[in-house]
Amino acid sequence: MFSKEEYIARREKLRQSVGTGLILFLGNDEVGSNFKDNVYPFRQDSSFIYFFGIQAPGLNAIIDVDGNEEIIFGDDLSIDDIVFSGPTTPLKERANMVGVANVMASDKLSDYLGGLKTNTEIHYLPPYRPEHILKLSSLLGSLPSEIEKGASTQLIKGVVKLRSIKSEEEVLEIEKAVNTTVEMQYKAMELAKPGITEADLFGAVKQIALANGNNTSFPTIMTVNGQILHNHYRKNILKTGDMVLCDCGAEGYSNYAGDLTRTFPVDEKFTDRQKRIYDIVYSAYRAAVDKLAPGCLFLDVHLAACQKIVEGLIDLGIMKGSASEAIAEGAHTLFFQCGLGHMLGLDVHDMENLGEQYVGYTDDLKQRTDFGFKSLRLGRMLEEGMVLTVEPGIYFIPELIALRKRAHKFEAFVDYGKLEDYMDLGGIRIEDDFLITAKGSRLLGNRLPSTSDEIEQFRITKQRI
Amino acid sequence: MFSKEEYIARREKLRQSVGTGLILFLGNDEVGSNFKDNVYPFRQDSSFIYFFGIQAPGLNAIIDVDGNEEIIFGDDLSIDDIVFSGPTTPLKERANMVGVANVMASDKLSDYLGGLKTNTEIHYLPPYRPEHILKLSSLLGSLPSEIEKGASTQLIKGVVKLRSIKSEEEVLEIEKAVNTTVEMQYKAMELAKPGITEADLFGAVKQIALANGNNTSFPTIMTVNGQILHNHYRKNILKTGDMVLCDCGAEGYSNYAGDLTRTFPVDEKFTDRQKRIYDIVYSAYRAAVDKLAPGCLFLDVHLAACQKIVEGLIDLGIMKGSASEAIAEGAHTLFFQCGLGHMLGLDVHDMENLGEQYVGYTDDLKQRTDFGFKSLRLGRMLEEGMVLTVEPGIYFIPELIALRKRAHKFEAFVDYGKLEDYMDLGGIRIEDDFLITAKGSRLLGNRLPSTSDEIEQFRITKQRI
Asked: By CB distance 3.0 to 4.6 Å, which of A245, A295, B117, B138 could disulfide with A226?
């Protein structure tokens, strides 16, 4: 939690940027998994956290831009709540800690909105949970199907502008989460050996996140099949010759996220074939990191990584022809199907619920819709204070390769015969988190083994670098 | 997963019990935490699992009772799905494995329902997630506010009747989950020592559930403040003199739940004061377990436990007067604020989403609404094949005691002066899982240390019993 003044300043800036009307923030509620009271770990909405700082379900808030009024709506605990969940600080006090003077009971929100002048514009952010649609539908008297398109572009832009640039205090919180994530990565690399399961490593990594913060910042990917980009299967037994791809992140107590990936051999060393692909991915990582600086389009950073990937695959004979032409045709998406990175903050894909076009692009730079590029969440010009991930990878996805081959796609750039030798290699990704600084970038958190040599060195000696 | 014949038989019995109309089952969808794609661990709806067995989001199913038709609605994967989530068995094959011949695309469900004869009754279960309300509202053309009261009592009763009595195969699955839970309890009791945090133990226990099944079956309670019944705070550092209350459960790969509680000292031994209270809780546990048998009301088992608690507290001088009168007046609820147990199965509070009145009570035995008894989820007569928890406890909740004292409640039964000596003791609970057998009951899973002596013995020697 930050200072009262910080929250007041954030809301003041937002008010100025939205200009007029009423801003309605929905805090998140508890969500049941298999019945109402068997709840998933509570996660407050990130924009609610950013502007109001309070971590509790059942809250909503308004900022009346014209009337200069702020109110948090919520209820204090009943004796039943205290028996089952324990006492908490009264809402009035918690509101005061973030500089909000007014608190009202939850059921007053509907009356409050009903009492507004009829032409008052009510700004709200896009709903991403069914509960948001139901709440907004009930509060605004609109059909559920009307809610999504009623989200306020002006509010989205105002929030994105503020949350995109991290303060020093925010960077400190992100770095804490990254360092917990570093511990998670080391743990996976320490424990991996033939005979244990992906689930064993998954659990060990989760334990570190839980013991040092709120949770993991997203579902950990811990897999011997790294070619499946968001693989959540975890029953495989590790065996000699496999690689493990571990993509994980801690969410710290203040809700900021870390997000790191390492791919390492179950044995002490990579096979020659694995090492060749690993080194290409590392060269793409290096090229991308070297370009990070204010004023550079992240789209260009992505393309620099693609260039290295294609050049490396040409060297191996898997690809052929001109690297630039291959990229222009999209042939690289046969091996690198996703984006190079995304912003990182209170969300692991920061502000993804506000819309990738608003977060990662601009009015002049639209997000592309073709395969591969449509998964690049960030394209716009970098600015000092942004925090983002760089995560190039090479993935051999048999189903995708078969589909493209059958359609005679990319035949000028891909040697499908040679590719057969790598079809079962799996996937390799390297991911770190960076702050954009005045002149370039800074790696966040302690440095993990990154090159294939460093990874092997750690697997052999278990000595940190 | 069970045999095809088993799923067919379950649906046939349900069809007979509902009699006429169309049964609509909503499978669960993914739920985003802080943005749509940052999903919580997927949990299929338990009744969907029971009748259709398929663990995947985005499915719905119907049983046309009159037309004798069964259809699962869902979509096969796109190439984008395969790239990000990997290939899966086609829905048609998965449906075949549970004996359902017909599969249709998701978007056909709305047309299908629209094409029914206008007087067809559509039976559905009570919604417990906002997504259910939105889906049903859209499918049935009703307002969201109308959905909850439209749930079918006939369907609820039919489902409860089937799911209440566990087959041998189901008991086997529950016992697997209980045994994983036993490992979780041993781990907590092994690791606990002054200086580590509740979160350390929380993470260690979660790791075991994740490495041996789907997840925990509910959010683990791991606390030095056991008097808060569902305490999810976990930042406290364990210190000498504390007790840890660990209430946790594993959810196995087939979604059946375990649920066990132990309370143990951070030191090797309980203090005298802790041991006195512990032994009363154990006597209540013993009395309750000894009564478990077909034909016995669980309400009476609950009352037998209450009797032992009050008698024990009278012996200590905290309570006074007649135990039976104290219970009749509700004075025991000052220390035992909740119910003795609940059914256990695919849900840790089995079928809680179907309504406690239908699951735990009967038309002739209504659930009480007064403090304490309203939290008793199960009151009805026990039958062979039921699986349930027994979990008596004594909890010293300062806020509740202060409230009752100020109101001059229970003055004939409580010595508020003597009670001061125990005000900071916290809470103690002992919980095990039982199958109701032909003549009595059987403890499920390997037996954990249960008496105060056994607990101390384990804390000293770390030797299992």
From this structure: A245
Q: Where are the beta strands (DSSP E) in B161-227?
A: 215-216, 221-223
B-chain residues near A43 (CB < 8 A): 33-34
Which of B302-310's residues contact partners 24+ apart within 8 Å by CB, and which partners? Answer: B302/B339, B302/B340, B302/B341, B302/B376, B302/B379, B303/B327, B305/B336, B305/B340, B305/B390, B305/B392, B306/B332, B306/B336, B308/B280, B308/B283, B308/B284, B308/B392, B309/B280, B309/B281, B309/B284, B309/B335, B309/B336, B309/B392, B309/B394, B310/B413
Q: Which fold would CATH assign to domain B4-164?
A: Creatine Amidinohydrolase; Chain A, domain 1 (3.40.350)
Tokens of B433: 């899982």
What's the ipTM? 0.95
pTM: 0.96
- Residue B204 is nearest to which of A41, A207, A229, comparing CB atoms? A207
Which member of B86, B210, B351 has the closest CB to residue A231? B86
**Can you list the pairs that B167-174 forms with residues at least 24 positions away whose Cβ atoms lie under 8 Å?**
B167/B6, B167/B385, B169/B2, B169/B6, B170/B256, B170/B345, B171/B387, B171/B435, B171/B444, B173/B252, B173/B254, B173/B256, B174/B256, B174/B257, B174/B258, B174/B344, B174/B345, B174/B387, B174/B433, B174/B444
> Which residue, B458, B62, B78, is CA-closest to A374?
B78
Interchain pair B35, A346: CB under 8 A: no
Contact call for residues B263 and B239 (beta carbons, < 8 A): no
Question: Looking at the domain covering A168-461, what would its CATH class be?
Answer: alpha beta
The domain spans of chain B are 4-164, 168-461
